[in-house]
Structures are given as C-alpha cells and as structure tokens.
Amino acid sequence: MSTLAGSTSDDLRRKAISISGIGAHEGNEEESIKKQFNRHLHYTLVKDRSNASNKDFFHALALTVRDYLSGRWLRTYQHYYREDVKRICYLSLEFYIGRTLKNTIINLGIQEVCEAAMKSFGLKLDELEDMEEDAGLGNGGLGRLAACFLDSMATLGLAAYGYGIRYDYGIFAQTMKNGWQVEEPDLWLKDGNPWEIVRHEYTQRVHFFGRVVNTDGRIEWKDTQVVLAVPYDTPVAGYKNNVVNVVRLWSARAPDSFNLQFFNDGDYVKAVCDRNIAENISRVLYPNDNMFEGKTLRLKQEYFLVSASLQDAIRRYKASQPGVVDITRTSFEEFPDKLAFQLNDTHPALAIPELMRLLMDVEGMSWEQAWNITFRTCAYTNHTILPEALERWPTQLLDNLLPRILEIIYYINHLFLIEVRRHFPGDEDRVRRMSIVEESENNQINMAHLAIVGSHAVNGVARIHSDLLKTTVFRDFYEMFPGRFQNKTNGITPRRWLLVCNPDLASLITERLGDGWVNHLGELRQLEPYAEDENFLQRLMEIKENNKLHLAEYIQTKYGVNVNVHSIFDVQVKRIHEYKRQLLNCLHAIVLYNRIKNNPNAPFTPRTIMIGGKAAPGYHTAKKIIKLFNNLARRINNDVDVGSKLKLVFLENYRVTLAEKIIPAADLSEQISTAGTEASGTGNMKFMLNGALTIGTLDGANIEMAEEAGEENIFIFGLKVHEINGVRRNYNPSRFYDELPELREAIDQLRAGFWSPDQSDLFMDLVDNLMHHDHYLVMADFKAYIDCQARVEAAYQDPLKWSRTCLLNIAASGKFSADRTIEEYAREIWDVKPNYHVIPAPSERPLAESIGVDM
C-alpha cells in the first residue's frame, strides 16, 4: 500500500500542503510566506538578515514564490497526463522574458501578502524586484511576442511548452561613450537564476558533422560529433487559474567522451579546452539587424534547438497514455492529434527535416508516413517580408555540418517540384522561383520555402502583413496553396503590460469594470461611456502625470537631464533600423530646434523627444543614427534659448524592465516605419493600452489600431503601401530638398557639420543616403510627418480632449490581447480549445489521485 493510499484525509491535506511548498489558504498565508522566506535565507543561501543584501533577499523571495508554484506545477502536469491533452510546442530561438518575480506574484494573486510579508521584515517589495536581472534572451519584438504567448497559453489553460536556448549571454548591454553605442556583455546568469530547475534526466544528444551511410536501404548518420542538450525549466504561471506551464531552455554541454583522443595522446589541456567548441552553441544570443548573414554558429544553434526539442517531445509522447505513464506508446498514428510544433519564424525551420529524420531513421517509418505526420504537426509564423532578412543557408555549409538533414531537404524539394510542375505545367520560371534549393554559383537553401512546404498552416502577424505575404514575397505559394495561408494579428499580455507596469491605471479600470477585463480585454469597450465623464478623465490625466513624474525622476537621476513633465512625452523605442525611421524623428527634432532659434518668442508646445533601442553591433548606419540623436541632444539640451521647450533623451540600454517605466508615461507613440516594412509591431499595442496616442503610418498593426479606435483618434500620415512602388519607380529624393525649406535647412546643417563641430563630415554618409539612396522614403514622407506633428501639438493644447482620445484608445485596445491571438492559433491552427477552468490548488484537493509524470 502506498503512503498516500494509507493516509487519513487530514494526512492527505497536510501532504498536499507540504508538496505545494506553502500552505495556501491554510491559516495565515502571510505567515507561510515569511516562514518560507526565512528558511531559504538561512538554509538555501546560508545568510541571516543582519548580513544579507537586497540581492540575497530577492533570491530568498523568488525561491519562496517558486515553492508556491511547485505544487501547482506538478498538479498541472498531472492534469495534462490524466486528460491526455494535445501539447503545443512553441519553438523559438528567442524568448525576451525580462523579469519574472512581479509578473508571477500578480498572476498567482499573492502580491498583497508578499508586500505585507516583506514589510514586516523592513523590506520593500519593489526594491527587491529591482534586484532581478532581465532575462534578455531576445532582440526585440519576436522574442517579446514569444514571452507574451507563454503567458497567454498558461492563462488559457493550454498544455504548452516554450522551447528555446539558455544563452549564457543575452542581448548585449548598451552603454554610451561620447554619444556612440558601446556593447558590453550581458552575463545575466552571474548571480544565478532562482527560477530555473535543471533536468539532467531529460538531456538529449544532438549530432553534427559525420557522414551518411546507406546499407541496403537502411540510412545511418555515422561518425558524428555529439553535443549534449541539457534542459533548464522555468515555470510560467497562468493568471489566477493555478496552471503552471514551462519554458524549457537548452544548454549545450560536451559529452564526457568529447575529444577523448587528446586524452589518450596526453594533451589533457587541449581536450578540456576543446569542449568549449561544443558548449559555445549556447554561449551567446546573436544580435539581430534584420539583415541575414549566414554564420556557422547560428546554424548550429538552430539545429541544436530543434533536434533537442523534437526528441524531447517524442519522448514525452511515447510516455503518454491516458491515466498511465508506465506504458509506452508505440504507434505514431495519433502524433499530429497530440502534438503541434509552431515555428516562430524560419529559425526553427530545420524542425521539418529533423522530424522526418527522427521518424524514418529512428522510428523506422516510410517517407510517406513520416511526411504525413510532419506536415500535419508543423505550422510556420512569418515575421518579415524584407528580402534581406529571409534566411538562406549555403548547401556547402549544410553538407558539412548536417549531411543527413541536407539529404532530406533535397528529397523534400524533389517531390515538391514534381507537384509544382503538375499544378503549373510548362512554367519552369515558377518552378525555379518556388524551389527550396536556390541554384546559383553557390547553391542555397531558402528556409522560408522549406517552412511553407513542410507546414499545414502559414500565418503573418497583422492583416496587411499577411496580405502582403500572399501578394508579394510568397505569391507563388499562395496561388498553389491558398487554404494554407492565414492571418494572426499579434497581441500583448495585459498582465505584464498593464497590471505590472501601470497598476494605478489597472486599478482605475477595475474600479469601474471589475477585474474580468484582465482575461477578456475586449471588456475595455465598456470604458467608452466614461469619455463624457470629466471626473474620470481627470483621474486618467492624474495617473498619466504621476507616471511622467516617475520617468522624469529616472531621467534626471540617470542622465542629469531635467525634463518638463508638462511637455509632450514623445517616445520612439524599438530596435534602431533604417526602416523604422528614427532618422525621420531626428529631422523633426532639428526642425523644432530651428523654429525656436529663428523665433524664440513664438508660441511653442513643449516636447520631450525620447528615442531608445539597440543597434546591431555591425550595423554602421544604425549606430550613426544613435550618434546623431545624441549630438542633437547635447546641443539642444544646453541651449539657453531653448530652455524647457525642447529636450532630447536617448534612453540607454532599452529592455523589458525599462519599457515598463517608459510606456505608462508616454503621451505620443512613434510608429513611423515605411508602409509595408513593419510586419506588425507590438510596442504600438503596449502604448495604446497605456493611454498614449499613436503617430504612425498605415503599416503593420497600426491599420487595425486605427480601425478599432477610429482614424480620428490616431495621427496617421505618409505614403500608403499601394503608393510605394509608384513613388519608387521615379524617385528623386533631392526634389524634396529643393521644395521644402525646413528640410533643406536641416540637411544643410548636417552637411556643414553644425551638429558635429569636432568632425564636420561625420554625418555626410547619412546625408548622402537621404539625398541619393533614400530607400525607406524619409524625404518623401517628411512634410506629411511634420504636418501631422503640428496636429499633435494642436490636440495637446486641449487637455480634456486629449485625455478623452486617450481613453478611447484604451477602450479600443481589446483586440490586441495575446489571449485573443492565442485563441485564434488554438482553434484555427492547433485544433485545440482554450480551457478557462481553474485547476484546484494543491491545498484544495488531496493528491491521492496523483500520477507520476514525465516533465
């Protein structure tokens, strides 16, 4: 008889509480947290309160919260195994998680008791939260989207696993030296990570190099170099539903036998040092500049991720049996009904040939059986239409690094081109365009084509983006597979991007609507009647002003710049890239400065222009734009004629934690990319939800935001997508220089070294690009942008009207919840239903029904 089976009901309850780590709902919850906190401080960290630092206190609290999660985590996976649910495997090379503590305690509903417990020790919760390092395992939107999706999948009760890489170094830390960006390593793990649990027992073996041997039809990949993929699990809590999912990040390790020959030859030091070759795979996140450049290490990372993740998913599938885990599944017929692999961009596209390899070479299936399973299981999300950003890998590199995978890709392409010729007989040009293998002097594999061919669903991330995929870059594929293409407009999690970062606004909304909006963001529409309630609008303005004060204090402390909190907080925060057009923002700052200097006594709407974002280390033009903005700031901020009318601030080292300070304080959100270049954007949604107004082009999700809020409540300017090609055919950017005096004055100042007195020709390359190579149409959209900014200034003169417009934007932001996005993925791609039921907490039901699970 098992221990649980022989226990009384009181024993069971005590065991449940013990397993959960904290006695939730048993006695005084605050006392339980205090007890666990002291236990971790004394016994895990071996510190007492007299010699512990805030960093120690943070770790003790994080471990206490993780204890609170542990019983829910086990209970969640028991539930998944008992119900034999379909598992969603979200494969992404980036997860831009940020900090975990505050988001987790809010999702668990224990913020107040944690605050009270820390206060009883003389500690402030927010100060401990500031001790946490950002998990900067992403470059920007793609990685942050993946993190939002994890939150939503847990909140919707989906059995989801995020699969990524545990980079030792995340996105680089950005510092400024004389106005130039300097990159510093981001060793985010230097103090340890209290959230993760290493799962050595689920380590997978990933193969590289070697040769392929065909013996009587039996394929073997021999003489490979093996790298071990060690999984580290971080829990992801759903919002107040007791669901805890996981993001599993793989760390590369060399096997004990790595380069054993060197040991045998007596070269111990070389043998040990050469282990780094294998372990470098998970050493560093590649900075993204939207310009694909093939690098062997990056290809290794992509294959390492998919091979380890797919092996792990197959292991778990084989161990799953309804209600029983010690019986192994031997049939793969149910595989597509029990697993879905979502490819977050082309980085995990090698999952398609790798799954084929595992099913054929390891599980012994025929090609037809394996392809049927692979095609039904995989789905692909595209994030860019920029041709230079699409991945292409040289066949020579693949042949050396992954010879078996290249063989499978060749055969996938062979069968696919037969199908193309059957659909479009005689159209060999189309066959060439659609081929996965791009034949030239140096043949390449087009990873987007591979992802489309091997996936049953392909989606863009905003309606215009999805339409452009079908009519431009993937038009041939859409004509052949029209039913395969879908749209899934991106979303953000309202938990982090309102509850966590703007608690005062969240409380005001809850006061009027209740808290149902947190899980059903569409309920924000019920705020619309308050647009005529001046008292409500006044409170909204007070919250915004308080958020602006907090940001102003940060800016004063960090940069020594005293900003006017009554000015327009004009914010553009995103990766620095030419298509995002931070340069257009810089030109506007120059125009405003010149207006003040030319007529110091004229009426002027005060403005604080803030730009934040990182340039990829090798992206010269992006770095030059940062230098330009910093030079503008140095001169403008110290000009007595300008005073408090205009300030410029570069927000150094932009990351998730800094975004949580900036976004609630913004008045104006700059979303000014060239129409047709931004796939969706998610920063635009965060600003909208927090009551900032948008100035932007009709690009990405801006279009849908304008539809939801009404075009009268958003500042739209510039060329539209259907106009771009016509303009480019006969584009002469210097014409705008001749026709627009304010633009000419700004260009002349850049050319003459007015903004770079120490090096007069410093910005000549930017001038040359604008005048002769203006691919992103900065000059063409300049006047429309300047005129639109004048409309912004006029609107800001009427605080009540501005506040009313802000409220209408908040009320219209419900569509842009990641919960809605994930619901659409679930129903229309993964064929699963969201589950809004709350799983009982560990203390609410004994564990007598529990079953063992493979995590």
Characterise the protein shown here.
With 855 residues, the protein is α/β, with parallel strands linked by helices. 47% of the residues lie in helices and 14% in strands. Strands 1, 4, 7, 8, 11, 12, 13, 14, 18 and 19 form a 10-stranded mixed sheet that branches. The longest helix is centred in the N-terminal third of the chain and has 30 residues, at 54-83. The radius of gyration is 28 Å and the shape is globular. It starts with 8 loop residues before the first helix and ends in a 25-residue tail after the last helix.
Return the CATH architecture of the largest domain. 3-Layer(aba) Sandwich
N-C termini distance: 25 Å
**CATH fold field value of the largest domain:** Rossmann fold
Q: How can the largest sheet be summarized?
A: 10 strands, mixed
- Helical content (DSSP H or I, runs of 4+): 40-55%
Total beta strands: 25
Low-confidence stretches: 1-27
Tertiary shape: globular
Number of helices: 34
Q: Give the name of the CATH superfamily of the largest domain.
A: Glycogen Phosphorylase B
Rg on CA atoms, Å:
28 Å
- What is the oligomer described by this structure? single chain
Overall SS class? alpha/beta
Content of β-strand? 5-15%
